Fold BTB domain-containing protein.
Amino acid sequence: MKMSGSDIIKLNVGGKVHTTTKSTLCKFPNSMLGAMFNGSMSPSLDENGCYFIDRDGELFKFILNFLRSSKLSLPESFKELDQLALEADFYQITPLIECIELLKQPSPEKQVRVRYLEVIEVRTGNLATMPTMNSRIKTIISGRRDVIHKFLSLHQIHPAERERLQLNSGKDYTEIALTGSNVRLQVGECLRNQGWSLSESQMSTFPSGEAIVHNYKDRWMLTVYKEDSLEESQCNSVDDELIDEISLLSSGDE
């Protein structure tokens, strides 16, 4: 009897019964299943009249779902990819074979990218350790322009520096004057809340005439993990280069 594409078919695959349609099994005419049900081959029947295939019945559900949706969907804990590849090869379903080969390729390694910002505060005065009316405070942040722009609020940047920050190209390293009382602590709190960690903090003191100069230098570090995909390596190779070190202001600059 000739079957139509909507005919219901029961398959006994390795002792497990699956129910589907002829059109699903013949989705890829050049496959073994396509040949079985388009008249090119004569499939065997079991005692219950089901078409019998002597293969893995549990894995066949993934084969059947691929025929239905053209997508390979596997559970996260799936550990039988090699066996599934053998099943796909047996059924000669080329698109499924290609999907499995892609999954078998090593996962892209995570690349570590490190960003640095350095905040330098210079206090000059008779009581330079405290922000009093008798002390002058200058605070500078140094690092990559796009990183500064992304993680700092504009109100923390000195008005005279904002235009220069906008004009510099994205990956230039720059030194920007900051504004505000105790801005070094404000910037530290801002960076900490965004995932940065304080990797180094130094203080130095030296006399300058009748005044005392205190230099405070905080180096902040952010570690970013990104997948090294082909698309990224082609499109973002410059943007995603590893930064091993940044040339920063010397602690004696004013």
In short: The two ends are 95 Å apart (CA to CA). Residues 142 and 175 are 4 Å apart (CA to CA).
